[in-house]
Amino acid sequence: MSSNPTRLPETTVAGDSEERIKRFLATASHDLQSPLRHIAMYAELLLDDLEETLDGEQLQSLRMIMEKAQTAQRLTKALMSLAAGTPQVTPEEVDLQALAENVWGELTDETAVAEATLESDGLPSIRTDRALLGLVLRHLLTNALTYRGEAPPHVAIAAEREGTDWFIRISDNGSGIDPAYRERIFEPFWKLPKAGAVPGAGLGLTTAREFLAALGGDIGLEHSDASGSRFIIRLPIA
Predict the structure, then answer these.
(1) What class of enzyme is it (predicted)?
(2) Could you tell me how far CA 177 lies from the centroid of its own chain?
(3) How many helices (H) and strands (E) does the chain have?
(4) Measured between alpha carbons, how far is 160 from 163 in angstroms, rounded to an integer?
(5) pLDDT per position as a tens digit, 177-207
């Protein structure tokens, strides 16, 4: 382990762009609260009314709907508080290995990317906000699956403790990031040029950085070339 603390590459965003992202987060999160609340409420009502008549698989599916809606409610509340400048963070002990596998499983199901693999054995438990860190991982893993190369996507996640911080490195075997764009990837509403339509508003890395700032951490691009990219997340040890 290096005796010198790891330094992350610096990124800057103009004040007007920060205001745009905050307004976007506040509006989107507010508009999502009502439908999410109703989804969770009706799923709970169905569970109460039909629990005795449904089989195990049906019950599991209904519980999953309710749990996902409740998780989304917590995330949108966190986004609203973040946009208001008063982020609400709920620290707890988080099994990083289980969280990474869960996010990866959801994404590979959603994207149906063939033969995508995750290498993440032995990740530690860390004390942080599960929902916010889960969103950060989701943004980074989504990018790895979206900006993939010709080979089947492969992502490796590793974590180590250095002094008073955790450093989490997420590496992929994608197409890499052109040096001309590396200073722009954290800008709000900017997307890396790619042949064909790329979904999303161009806010993934921007919001990931904002979430990590709320957790007392940050993120940077540590390495990128034709063999892939490696992002590094710093989180304080609680």
Answers:
(1) transferase
(2) 19
(3) 5, 7
(4) 10
(5) 888 888 888 877 667 766 444 555 556 788 8
Three-class DSSP labels, 18-42? HHHHHHHHHHHHHHHHHHHHHHHHH
* CB-based contact 173:220 (threshold 8 Å): no
According to DSSP, residue 6 is labeled P
Sign of the C-alpha dihedral computed for residues 20, 24, 27 and 30 taken in this order: negative
Q: Is 102 left (phi over 0), alpha (psi -120 to 50) or beta?
A: alpha
Per DSSP, the three-state class of 174 is: coil
In SS3 terms, 41-93 reads as HHHHHHHHHHCCCCCHHHHHHHHHHHHHHHHHHHHHHHHHHHHCCCCCCCEEE
Amino acid present at 52? E
Quick one: how far is CA 88 from the chain centroid?
Answer: 17
Residue with tokens 């290498």: 119
**Calpha distance 202→17 (Å, rounded):** 12
Tokens found for residue 110: 């959603």
